[in-house]
Amino acid sequence: MKDTSSSNDWTTRPAAKSGQFAIGGELQVNRLGFGAMRITGNGIWGPPKDRAESVRVLRRSIELGINFIDTADSYGPSVSEEIIAEALHPYHEGLVIATKAGFDRTGPNQWVMNGKPKHLREALEGSLKRLRLDHIDLYQLHRIDPEVPVEDQLGTFKDFQSEGKIKHVGLSEVSVEQIKHARKIVPIVSVQNRYSVADRAAEDVLEYCEKENIAFIPWFPLAAGDVSKSGHEIERAAGDLKIAPSQLALAWLLWRSPVILPIPGTSSVKHLEENVATAALKIEPSKLKNLGKMARGA
To answer: For the residues 141-156, what does the mean pLDDT come to?
Structure first.
């Protein structure tokens, strides 16, 4: 359900300064989004220590112009989706909530792949119910389960599309070859791989996504808030610019490619506001280019 009672011009809010991208050619979002993994408890398990603050973070994200929120049924499990609905339903027109399926959770920090069609269907029905939606704009396969034929996993997602329960399909933690194979089964509009200025293992995947105009959603974009551990270059450069290392890391991602949609997560309104402030930073491209070279060589 969308709240259309009042206009919500996403282009006039702070996050809009990050630029825009149309996921799947139609879901227009501001490029700086929000990852809702850390609004759960320790180990991404159970409720957060301060549920009220998690609700405030989500509501403040909308006020700041974030209209792309990424979550998963496994965050909590279920907790992240429940809090999103509690905080934001009925949803503003133009808000895209993406979620994922493909894991069983057996305890804190424990993730067990499950790509069986029956599990995927149960996961989708659960997400629709918790998020209070009749369809999901972007539904992502959290991992390709090697124990289940990929045709069965993505064939199930294709069935979801034909049933009108999801609009678009995305992948997570995949290689270029896996993306190419997947696209023979169902159209793929997004890829979510681990990537940051300090972690460039997915460079070839990013380049493929850029060529094909597929949204590239880097997870762990700030290395859990400690990008400075990658070396002194980021910390030193951020100090020279009088900004936080995390802001510089986000600015680098936004500069790196127009298909990148960073989704930094936090359970703090203060940290959220600091992240969004990144969108307005004016940093010389040459400095960002040099930072990328230094961090890669660190």
So the answer is: 98
Domain of residue 209, residue span? 2-227+249-281
**Catalytic site residue 75?**
yes
Tell me which of 75, 139, 195, 208 is the catalytic residue.
Answer: 75
CATH of the domain at 144: 3.20.20.100
Q: What is the mean pLDDT of residues 188-209?
A: 96
Number of domains forming the structure of the chain? 1
**pLDDT at position 5 over 90:** no
Q: What is the pTM of this model?
A: 0.94
Q: Give mean pLDDT, residues 182-210.
A: 96
User: By percentage, how much of the chain surpasses pLDDT 70?
Assistant: 92
Q: What mean pLDDT comes out for the span 95-108?
A: 98
Q: Is residue 19 part of a domain?
A: yes
Q: Which residues contact 9 (CB under 8 A, 6 or more apart)?
A: none
User: Phi, psi at residue 98, to the nearest 5°?
Assistant: -100, 140
pLDDT in tens, 80-93: 999 999 999 999 99
- Number of neighbours of residue 45 by Cβ within 10 angstroms: 18
pLDDT at 226 > cutoff 60: no
